[in-house]
Design goal:
This protein has 2 domains: 113 residues, Cupredoxins -  blue copper proteins (Immunoglobulin-like), CATH 2.60.40.420; 80 residues, Macroglobulin (MG2) domain (Immunoglobulin-like). The N and C termini lie far apart (61 Å). It has a 4-stranded mixed beta sheet with strand order 2-7-6-4, with no helix packed on it. The protein contains 1 helix and 14 strands. It is mainly beta. β10 and β11 form a beta hairpin. The N terminus is likely disordered. The protein is elongated, with a radius of gyration of 20 Å.
Length: 203
């Protein structure tokens, strides 16, 4: 009986650990690393609770990574003169604005942390869709892929709370977003068998 209980306990623990997969995001940290930069130099990312962000900088000059006062979590790296690396595991849902102290004008970004599981979608179940305009103030269009007739659109705020739910079809795909407050949202589009997500900015 004891062996049976031990087996069940170990099986439950292993399933729980497998379910809790975490990701690591890498940011190339240097001059002009901003939210509008492309590739790994893009300084604004959306991650899940428990994920790790690593900032790597290779260029000369004194750089650091420092959270702003408005950041959900407080963090600050040392100064590196000729390249370096800094990493942090984010543990709570929220928006984390940060800068390089000496170069705040062209080295800044936001790490948006959402609830665990919000971004975890397998490739087989991934829905690819188009969304425009983004940012938007009053209306946004959701272009469903060919063959998809209807879907549910969900807007999650930076705390992981469901802020708005709408239905769309291939024919009626314009959504009113006037009721949303200004800010960054995770938009999920859900069909019967697939889910897609993108970052949406309400201006």
């Amino acid at each position: 009986m004891v062996k049976k209980l031990l087996f069940i306990l170990l099986l439950t623990l292993s399933i729980h650990l497998v379910a809790q997969t975490t990701q690591t995001v890498t940011i190339d940290w240097g001059r002009n690393s901003t939210p509008s930069a492309t590739g790994n130099a893009n300084a604004s990312r959306t991650i899940e609770v428990g994920d790790t962000v690593i900032w790597n900088w290779y260029s000369s000059g004194s750089h650091n990574v420092k959270s702003k006062d408005s950041s959900n979590e407080s963090f600050e790296s040392a100064y590196f003169q000729n390249g370096g690396s800094y990493e942090r595991i984010f543990t709570s849902v929220g928006a984390n604005e940060y800068i390089c102290s000496p170069h705040a004008g062209d080295m800044f970004g936001t790490i948006t942390v959402v609830a665990e599981g919000v971004l975890s979608i397998s490739e087989a179940n991934l829905l690819k869709f188009e969304m425009f305009p983004n940012p938007a103030s009053d209306k946004v269009t959701i272009q469903l892929p060919s063959g998809t007739e209807k879907a549910t659109v969900q807007f999650y705020d930076y705390l992981g709370r469901l802020a708005l739910t709408k239905k769309v079809t291939s024919a009626k795909n314009i959504l009113e977003v006037n009721s949303l407050s200004k800010g960054v949202y995770m938009l999920k589009v859900v069909t019967e068998d697939k889910v897609g997500s993108q970052k949406f900015i309400k201006k």
